[in-house]
Design goal:
The complex is a heterodimer of chains A (419) and B (226).
Chain A lengths: L2 H14 L1 H37 L5 E4 L9 H4 L25 H10 L3 E16 L2 E10 L1 H8 L5 E4 L3 H4 L3 E5 H7 L6 E6 L4 E10 L4 H6 E5 H8 L8 E6 L5 H12 L2 E4 H4 L1 H39 L1 H9 L4 H36 L19 H27 L3 H7 L1
Parallel strand pairs in A: 3-8, 5-7
Antiparallel strand pairs in A: 1-9, 1-10, 2-3, 2-6, 2-9, 4-7, 5-8, 6-7
Chain B lengths: L3 E12 L5 E12 L3 E6 L5 H8 L7 E6 L2 E2 L5 H11 E4 L11 H12 L4 H14 L15 H13 L5 E5 L7 H17 L3 E5 L3 H4 L4 E6 L2 E4 L1
Parallel strand pairs in B: 3-8, 3-9, 6-7, 7-8
Antiparallel strand pairs in B: 1-2, 1-4, 4-5, 9-10
The chains are: A alpha+beta (419), B alpha/beta (226).
């Protein structure tokens, strides 16, 4: 096959019907533009929304859960092994929240190749004393450097400095909701009472806002040492270990493995936050469905125009065949016409899609819930541009294929005789 | 002995629509190199049908067609296209030029398809053909912008571009006035005598056929004379 010759014939036929060809290409351009814009905006939004929770969520969380023992004594007893044992009103056993041997576990986790990093954590139930009133609260004892590295905590500190948490003794970062309720600002000192009745004064060094009211009203952060001191525990006391993995998809399997290996509870991100994944995938499905619909409409346009062109060009097809072009050559002439329309339209679509999503990226989008976001989020992932052009090529190829096949089957004798 | 260019052995052809009807019956004849043959007969005697079979465009027949010593039986569409491209030159009653292309491009088209020569050589060749037919001044014009007689000469130039063994014509003068018919005949005659190419021309034109080397007369799907 002489591709150059075939492309040349296609080009001439295309140019002879320039206006129709342009209209067909505009259809493709429109489809691809909308696809790029939609997918960039949607995935940008998805990333933002997912990040809101998922960035702050460990991939695997290791902890001790308070729950009744699965193996009650009666079940272990051989005397009752072949009986059906029913025990009413089982209560959980008194069991410390502390992870036993936490230092050794952390050391072995750090050696695991699949692990990106680990962050120890202590959760402590407290009351914030405001005058005569006690407010419920939770203090999370964190390793400041690691927490910022793995979970971008610093992004959410809207006032003050996260690093002060480590350098200032007995310091705390409050949620925005809690700080507003207590009418405190940076530099103020608050009184905290633990569940066991111990009291401590903590200095506010920052205020954070995640944009989730439940978190901002209740949660607060202190350094791990401050929290250990508050609880009167030793410096090896840790209640949670948060693990961030290199590959998120391994989380479920690895959580199961850790649970067995260390004999503690482990929960993975997929199990804990299944709803986010569902939301993202549904938004993606909608985006693709809309774009594919647009492209199919564009495809029908191309199909129509090619069909008309073939009808008009019956004589030319007959003469090409009579002078030595095979059915395959004729088929490729028309498929190349379709592909030229598709590729040209698609490339313009990518360009316009980029321009449109850049414009969206400039539109101000200020919300109290998202302190770090100033404009609409747009995801400029080159992968979507690749998908876009591949979409355009596939749709136009299919749209061109059927008319082209018809053209390839034109019987020159019938045309020449029929005149 | 002169070389046989074309040979048919008992070619039968039926039309099945609306009822089965035999249009060609045991057509057997041969053509030698540089022979100028005309096929004559009444309308509907099957002469055009025969020509389409000989041109390899129609493959729905019984019997055998041998072109340049090679049987055309069972060849694929791709192979037959190649044979048409390389060995057969075509001139039709209606001129069938590609109206989007220039005259020169029309003439070059089969040559580019054959790709035996480079594009530049094909262009040179095509221009020579146009010149020999006295229409080189039309080379850059669009095919839709020239007159009927000129179109037919362009079609002849196109038929000659690959130096085919045989040139087939289906009423090539049927649509032309007397003067243009004469011109076309002279061109054909010159080809047969000078380049040794064979010509097989289906025609109604008694005046035209009487001047050819050999007349094959057909009636009712059979060769009755020649």
């Amino acid at each position: 096959m002489q591709w150059f010759l075939i492309l040349n014939i296609s080009k001439t036929l295309l140019l002879a019907r320039l206006r129709q060809s342009v209209i067909a290409a505009v259809g493709v351009t429109f489809g691809i533009t909308m696809f790029i814009t939609l997918v960039s905006f949607m995935t940008g939004l998805n990333k933002l929304l997912d990040g809101l929770i998922l960035n702050r969520t460990p991939h695997i969380r290791l902890y001790n859960e308070i729950k009744p023992s699965e193996n009650q004594p009666v079940n272990l007893s051989l005397n009752y092994a072949d009986h059906i044992n029913i025990i009413h009103s089982v209560k959980p056993k008194e069991r410390p929240l502390e992870i036993y041997n936490s230092q050794a576990i952390m050391r072995s986790l750090k050696e695991d190749d699949r692990v990106l990093g680990i962050a120890p954590k202590i959760t402590a139930q407290v009351f914030f004393n405001v005058g005569a009133i006690d407010l419920n609260g939770i203090i999370n004892g964190i390793d400041v450097v690691v927490e910022n590295q793995l979970f971008n905590f610093g992004d959410y500190v809207i006032k003050g400095n996260l690093r002060d948490l480590q350098t200032v003794n007995n310091s705390i970062i409050l949620g925005k909701g809690a700080a507003d309720k207590m009418l405190v600002d940076i530099g103020d000192v608050i009184q905290v009472t633990t569940a066991r009745g111990e009291r401590l004064s903590l200095k506010v060094v920052g205020i954070f806002q995640l944009g989730i009211a439940d978190v901002d009203n209740v949660q607060s952060y202190a350094s791990i040492q401050t929290t250990q001191k508050l609880l009167g525990e030793s410096n090896s006391y840790v209640t949670d270990i948060h693990v961030k993995l290199k590959d998120l998809s391994l989380a479920t399997a690895m959580a199961r493995q850790y649970k067995k290996l260390y004999g503690i509870d482990a929960v993975d991100i997929q199990t804990a936050n299944a709803q986010f994944e569902t939301g993202s995938s549904i938004r993606n499905i909608i985006t693709y469905a809309v774009s594919i619909t647009l492209l199919i409409v564009a495809g029908f346009g191309i199909y129509n125009i090619l069909n008309m062109m073939i009808y008009e060009k019956m004589d030319s097809i007959a003469i090409l065949k009579a002078t030595g072009f095979s059915g395959r050559d004729v088929k490729w002439i028309f498929i190349s016409i379709s592909l030229i329309i598709g590729i040209t339209g698609g490339l313009f679509g990518l360009l316009f899609g980029y321009i449109l999503s850049s414009i969206i990226n400039q539109i101000p989008f200020v919300t109290a819930a998202l302190p770090t976001v100033k404009t609409f989020p747009v995801n400029f992932n080159p992968f979507y541009y690749l998908i876009g052009i591949v979409f355009a090529i596939i749709t136009t190829y299919i749209a061109g294929f059927f008319p082209a096949r018809k053209a390839s089957k034109v019987d020159p004798v019938e045309i020449i005789r029929g005149k | 002995m002169e070389k046989l260019i074309l040979e048919t052995k008992k070619i039968n052809k039926y039309f099945h629509d609306p009822v089965t009807n035999q249009v060609l019956q045991d057509i057997s004849f041969t053509m030698k190199q540089s022979e100028f043959v005309s096929v004559v007969g009444k309308s509907g005697c099957g002469k055009s049908t025969l020509l389409y079979i000989l041109s390899t465009m129609d493959t729905d027949y019984e019997g055998e067609l041998i072109l340049d010593g090679i049987s055309m039986k069972g060849k694929s569409d791709e192979e037959l296209s190649r044979v048409r491209n390389e060995k057969i030159g075509f001139v039709f009653q209606f001129h069938y030029l590609l109206s989007e292309f220039s005259v020169l491009q029309n003439v070059m088209m089969p040559g580019l398809k054959l790709a035996r020569y480079t594009k530049e050589e094909v262009r040179q060749n095509a221009f020579e053909r146009l010149k020999s037919l006295g229409i080189e001044h039309l080379a850059t014009k669009r095919a839709s912008q020239i007159s009927g007689g000129e179109k037919q000469r362009v079609a002849i130039a196109r038929a000659l571009i690959n130096n085919p063994l045989i040139i087939m014509g289906d009423e090539p003068t049927g649509n032309l006035d007397h003067k243009n018919s004469d011109t076309v005949f002279d061109i054909f005659h010159q080809l047969a005598s000078e380049t040794g190419q064979s010509l097989l021309i289906v025609t109604h034109d008694r005046d035209f056929s009487s001047r050819t080397d050999r007349i094959i007369e057909m009636d009712d799907g059979q060769i009755v004379n020649g």
